[in-house]
Amino acid sequence: MAEVINMPRLSDTMEEGVVAKWLKKVGDEVSEGDILAEIETDKATMEFESFHSGVLLHVGLQEGETAPVDTLLAIIGEKGEDISGLLNEAKDASKPEEKASKNDESGTKSEKLAEVPEGVEIVTMPRLSDTMTEGTVATWLKKVGDKVTEGDILAEIETDKATMEFESFYAGTLLYVGIQEGGSAPVDALLAIIGPAGLDVTDIAKNYSTPGDAPKKEEATAAPEKTTEVKQESQTSSVDTQTDGRVFASPLAKKIAAEKGYNLSQIKGTGENGRIVKADVENFSPAAVSNEASQPAVAAYQPVGAEHFEEKANSQMRKTIAKRLGESKFTAPHYYLTIEISMDQAIASRQSINAIPDTKVSFNDMVIKAVAMALRKHPQVNTQWKDSVTRYNQHIHVGVAVAVEDGLVVPVLKFTDQLTLTQIGSQVKDLAGKARNKKLQPAEMEGSTFTVSNLGMFGIEEFTSIINQPNAAILSVGAIIEKPVVKEGQIVVGNQMKLTLACDHRTVDGATGAQFLQTLKLYLENPVTMLA
């Protein structure tokens, strides 16, 4: 019997996943324990193994596609087995949300869709960005009567962020276009109808309100493919100007000029056949016009160029970082304490330790060790705020922020206070390597009670960090800087480092945070105390 495999939850915070790579293809034999695919979660790219044996009969997501947890990922069964029932069940499972969404926005729309004949597909204005409320059809790449295959690009849609290609999810003939090029409409408005060739869909189209926005002539002017249309419009308007004195300008230029109180007859157009466009109004100076008669004209420098940008889809990791840090910053009342410490003794101690064969200890390792020992003396900093209780962690698990390609991850050193400096250095190196190669396991990133973030290696002298919830504090470590300091009444060169502690005021008060930093300072300025 065929088995349905859904998008797995590979971490405690995972809400959706991306199929980074399929290691099996439809038709391949699959044994229990075989790696089916590599799934990109919010924390890492992980191998996903099969718990079933059989033949891979269906793939629900292609490489690079994103879907929520529990979405159909694949079906495994016997060769030639009929899985149409399972596919229909998966399709039906997603329909209630779609219908509910459509009913929310148009009370009668679900009833009208029910009258659509079988084989006819209604295509609506898609939501191509998280902030998009309406879109403009920049270009149709298919025209009425054209054959459409699933995956063909139907049109280019201009959103509030970019002009994006919109592909068809259906196959058939393009029977109707609801929005002309340059026309705008809200998300979910009728965009097109696809179905069997020759079918009359006029009555079906009447069931949907038609946007009525006129094409944006300003955009038509800017698009090279509309040259013929623009020239015809320009010639007509040019005649109008000669016969009745009207000024030829784009609607957007007229709007801006009206807002600024400019007289369009004083503005020189740089568009086709002298047409006034947006840039002409924005660059216009009334003062220059009034002084023109008395002063010789001086051509103002006009920088020439085009604005460029590129949009890249946010990775699962990036989206989760944004969500978690936003939640932390806006729910936990942060405050910051900074202290400057002398690293002269730490430098000397590190040189002595690293002189031992096969031993390598970094300054960051020394900070982590000092943090773990200081947390043992100040348990209030090793807490977690919960609405009804404060959790006092008896164990000390220090998370170490590691920069990776898509953002940062926080591998965790378990029972850090029990580790030696060399053990800390070895574990940090191993975990950081896994993080950069996207090989960290969820268990290696869970359970931190305190976090250390170090940007000193980048020359950053001082910075603040956002608390890694549910921790109550995070330590920001700056660079070691040579600078003049006063010692025993004399100005000498010292090696100084700044530490900034961000605390959640709900559980860690200012005095508690200050005492923690004082203890940390004591350990780092006297490293021998960490070896006792």
Provide a descriptive summary of the structure in words.
With 532 residues, this protein is α+β, with helices and mostly antiparallel strands. It folds into four domains: 3-101, RNA polymerase II/Efflux pump adaptor protein, barrel-sandwich hybrid domain (OB fold (Dihydrolipoamide Acetyltransferase, E2P), Beta Barrel); 115-215, RNA polymerase II/Efflux pump adaptor protein, barrel-sandwich hybrid domain (OB fold (Dihydrolipoamide Acetyltransferase, E2P)); 218-290, E3-binding domain (Dihydrolipoamide Transferase, Irregular), CATH 4.10.320; 316-530, Chloramphenicol acetyltransferase-like domain (Chloramphenicol Acetyltransferase, 2-Layer Sandwich), CATH 3.30.559. The protein is built from 13 helices and 26 strands. The strands form seven sheets. The protein has a six-stranded mixed beta sheet. A four-stranded antiparallel beta sheet has the order 1-8-6-3, with no helix packed on it. It is flat, with a radius of gyration of 32 Å. The two termini are 64 Å apart.
